[in-house]
Amino acid sequence: MAVYTEVGDEELSSFLTDYDIGHLVAFRGIAEGVENSNFLLRTEKDGVARDFILTLYERRVNPAELPWFLGLMEHLATHGVSCPLPVAGRDGNALRELAGRPAAITTFLPGVWPRHVQVEHCGPLGEALARLHEAGTTYAPTRANGLGPTAWQPLLDKAAASQGTEETFPGLTAELRLALKRILSAWPPSSDPAVLPRGQIHADLFPDNAFFLDGRVSGIIDFYFACTDLLAYDVAICLNAWCFDETGHFDTARRDALLAGYESVRPLTSAEHDALPALCAGGALRFALTRLYDWVNTPAGALVTRKDPMDYVKKLRVFLSDMSVNPVHV
Amino acid sequence: MAVYTEVGDEELSSFLTDYDIGHLVAFRGIAEGVENSNFLLRTEKDGVARDFILTLYERRVNPAELPWFLGLMEHLATHGVSCPLPVAGRDGNALRELAGRPAAITTFLPGVWPRHVQVEHCGPLGEALARLHEAGTTYAPTRANGLGPTAWQPLLDKAAASQGTEETFPGLTAELRLALKRILSAWPPSSDPAVLPRGQIHADLFPDNAFFLDGRVSGIIDFYFACTDLLAYDVAICLNAWCFDETGHFDTARRDALLAGYESVRPLTSAEHDALPALCAGGALRFALTRLYDWVNTPAGALVTRKDPMDYVKKLRVFLSDMSVNPVHV
């Protein structure tokens, strides 16, 4: 929620001459996007105002991977998904440099992200996720999931080794070790792609990354965790992100709406249904681990908001109990 | 640079029914405005997109003073100043409540604030400031300057009494005491309004509060320090905010351009010219004092950016030396 890098006026003017998008009309920092600096950029061309988002890529995004992300967004946007379309400069390249950072201009999307998720959001969200998965099947380049199951043990080890983890969260790393073991033993084998369909997943489709307008999804943003992985794992991440109410209770009406919306476009296979409890627990563990790692590795005085890992530990407990009670179907 | 308060979707929809500005199309947090939460709000009415800024007023702004600020902005906007125009709801009131905060919708202004001030900005800025002063003469309500000369001694006393001030800034409060004494003895008497013209001043017209487009000032924002005070003191604040280069050197070419731009609309009286060195030193002292106070009273871990008071102490030294060398004219 910040602008990390400022862009000089002459720099900006000079940067825009590389594009055929008209002349600059307005430029305002956007308080969204956790990792990058984003600006609303308005231009005018032939008397018509046009809006874009200018993104400067900060730490955490590997510049070498930006062509994959921008390529995916372009592919999805041109295959019916309401996501930002990267705008190419006059030389055909969308990925450029500004203020010493990799930078790109993408189209501005209408809508409002839901500050309070309702069951009514979950059906359209599930449907939009399925359309994203379908559109992604024809994007051939792949990107490994850097925060997938193989990353969890090292993340947990690092968090456990950090000073203060045990004092701040007594017993937590031991609990997470047991959970990790259970989840990995139930995880669908990646060696047999026929079992669970794989493809391009968003992997971070939280409410602040989905804009709604008139009850429909009008935009999906922030593809910088996207990767090639189990499609049903993306569904599981959304069940984590969208289906717990504000008291931490798992809302089965939201889950049912999300799955029904998804399956109205792409029915889950029975193997995917069977795997969902483990995938949901895995999704909860993934966010619990990255939040725990960030929590114990962020200096108390840093200018970033630390997110409490316990929110996801509680979700993890719900899904682990679901794995026990109902090991076959969610 | 943040959004402090989030607005629920239903809350926002319900809030907008109080206005006749069309239906909601987009809503994004803006990373600008130091003290308040600001959002870009786009609506559509009769097929035409319209942009606004929604502001939620946070701490530091006294709700009782909001009618004065909004009244001033409306007056200025309808008297030729490019500033945000408050939008009234169907009941005629611009000041409303949203998410438990006082809230107002104002028009969106085009332009870009200059990240790197050039001499070319200073003429148009001076001219825009003079037009603001002229337009303000017909706005009758007054507001005392809460951060004017009478506030400086108590601010300095509080900063001096804070733990750590002397260790962090050795000798600084003693230096500021001497400066304050000199400045107050040279300050124009407020008892004789004929000496220096008084009126509505912005009092915080820093580069990030002035948008430019095609070499002209396209917007002046953030009126929440505005008050009724010496017009030339507003000029002095701008000389502080716009005329030092990035190495801390006072750029007389910028000063000359700013004053020439101002005087092309409203010539300063000779008494105002004579007073400028003391007013400039007072402006530097005012920002040095509030920054020092904030610095020593902001916990190291707080989620706000502390501004170094020494930047303004250095400016203060420049203006104090100017008071000695050239006591009559800047």
From TrEMBL, chains A, B:
Transmembrane segments: none
Enzyme class label: transferase
InterPro entries: Aminoglycoside_PTrfase, Homoserine_kinase_II, Kinase-like_dom_sf, Pseudomonas-type_ThrB
Catalytic activity: L-homoserine + ATP = O-phospho-L-homoserine + ADP + H(+)
Pathway the protein takes part in: Amino-acid biosynthesis; L-threonine biosynthesis; L-threonine from L-aspartate: step 4/5
Domain Aminoglycoside phosphotransferase: 27-268
Keyword annotations of the record: Amino-acid biosynthesis, ATP-binding, Kinase, Nucleotide-binding, Threonine biosynthesis, Transferase
Family annotation (CDD domains): HomoserineK_II
Cited Pfam families: APH
Record EC number: 2.7.1.39
Example GO biological process: threonine biosynthetic process
GO molecular function, one term: ATP binding
Entry's family note: Belongs to the pseudomonas-type ThrB family.
NCBIfam families: PRK05231.1, thrB_alt
Protein name: Homoserine kinase
Gene that produces this protein: thrB
